[in-house]
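WARN no homologs supplied; continuing
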Amino acid sequence: MPDVFQGVMTFAALATAVFAAYATWRAPLSAAELAERLREAKAQHEERRRHKLHVFATLMQERATLSSLDGVRVLNLIDVIFHDCREVREAWAELHLSFDATKNIPPHAQEERVRKLLIAMAKDLGLGEQLRNDDFGRVYYPNALAEEELVRQLERKSTISRLQGQLPTANTTPEIAGSRWPPKPD
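OK structure emitted
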């Protein structure tokens, strides 16, 4: 019986030595894999934050004229970029509803919805404590820029009216004198 006991003890010692050798070999690999996963997670988090900051900063810059090309682009990114923030998406949904002309939302109510959206974004980004409600409402938009925008709108309306007056009526094909195309059937 002592030989059996000694054999078991020898096998246990051998198994312990093999396990220790494996753990010594595997530990640095496991640590490296964990470090890489943590680095990737941090990089993804920083990339999401960078995108959120871009949308927020662009909206802050364009809040006087959300209908600008940049303003429209970032508004349309909100649901994707802030997919993980319900408060931002709800504020965006409320603002989006106010763009419907049939709802007759007054401009001051629409501006309040813009502020609500910006505040929700600032909170999500961790900036909520540093910015006040009036910081979001303070906008610099000089008269010269407002006049330029008005001129562009008037020119666009004039061009549309002119083009609509020149368009042929529906289901008519203009005739070209002496045209052989399309050929008439024989």
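Residues 32 and 38 are 10 Å apart (CA to CA).
OK
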